[in-house]
Amino acid sequence: MCSTSCAAPLACLAGALDALAGQDLKSSFGPAVLERTDALVRARNRLDAELARTVREGELTQAAEHDGKASMASWLRGHHRLSKAEAGRVVRSGRALEQLPVLAVAAAAGAVPAEAVNAIAPIAAPDALAAADAQGVDVAEIDAALTRAAITAPHADLRQAVGHYLARLDPDGPEPDPTEQRSLTITRHTDGSVSFHGTLDAVGGEKFHAAVESIRQANRPAGDTRTRAQQGGDALVQLADNALASGNLPTMRTVKPHVAVIIDLDDLVDPHPGADAGRTGFGALISAARARWLACDSVVSRVVMGPDGQLLDLGRTHRVVPPHLRRAVEIRDRTCVFAGCDAPSHWCDVHHVLEWLAHDGPTSLDNSALLCERHHTKVHHGFRLERQPDGRWRTWRPDGTEIVVFDPFLISA
């Protein structure tokens, strides 16, 4: 057993972590890996509790002022690049552990994860403690009960128990404004991808869940290998597509909201992928290949710039696929034509089977196909479509093999 009388605990901790990182895991088998994982989770819980306790001490002593910071939260963001949400979580947890001794002991022992501490923290907020005192609630009993739940119950049940307690503290108070519980933060990364974090009230969350789930369940093509999380991401993008296509969103400075891409003509017609050749309206860099995919069914404007950036010519905006052609394609195809997919027409773009940019493919009914967002991407990444004389569509993978979907009506008697 390791000694607890280390003269320099942080140095001992660093040495232990170095030793762990140096261990060869390839020779471990199932039970040993699980045992190691269990020990590491408990150690992480203990470290999170110790971090929260230390940050709370920093708050009480205004330690952040030593480095010119106004708060421990800003110090964590500036010195360790924690997100605003994570820094706030650590600070709230430190305050809660100070007020809830049973929870603090369990967290220090590694029995309660940081996520559970954060879930319980609202009961130790000043207004919640004041309400409990006014009603004669024994917070020590609540501390013990919720700590037991954190140790033994699923996290969702713990959150529900905390919410129930807080609601009972003020059962006759005014109904909270649901909009005050809603937030959405969008972060764009250097590669143009986006991550987001948000919180919704119960009713708003139900609406969001119902909308995403309806599209997730409606779009389950044959041979779909996506995870549920990937299906959810695609569903969210489809929701955005539907909203943008409806034309009912508020205008942005007299212009309907849309996806805008600026790209040099030479890059657009070049058949190579062309990394970072285009820039979207919100500043993301995308490849020329991605821009060509977007240009399949879009509005195009020609802008000629001089060598010093002055505008020389602004060409007329024209629709690549005019409305009457789209209606004809929708009547003919009805759904996404990719093998095994039946996404409805209002989810789909009109794709040029022979690309109009790279191969001078005509914008015509014979050269058009309905494709949902997911399969439109696939076709621009090596999959191939072809319409047969009898009107059926066939789909080939990049390796040349055909995707065949079982159709009982094509089986001869």
UniProtKB/TrEMBL annotation:
<dbReference type="InterPro" id="IPR003870">
    <property type="entry name" value="DUF222"/>
</dbReference>
<feature type="domain" description="HNH nuclease">
    <location>
        <begin position="324"/>
        <end position="377"/>
    </location>
</feature>
<feature type="signal peptide">
    <location>
        <begin position="1"/>
        <end position="21"/>
    </location>
</feature>
<protein>
    <submittedName>
        <fullName>DUF222 domain-containing protein</fullName>
    </submittedName>
</protein>
<dbReference type="Pfam" id="PF02720">
    <property type="entry name" value="DUF222"/>
</dbReference>
<keyword id="KW-0732">Signal</keyword>
<dbReference type="InterPro" id="IPR003615">
    <property type="entry name" value="HNH_nuc"/>
</dbReference>
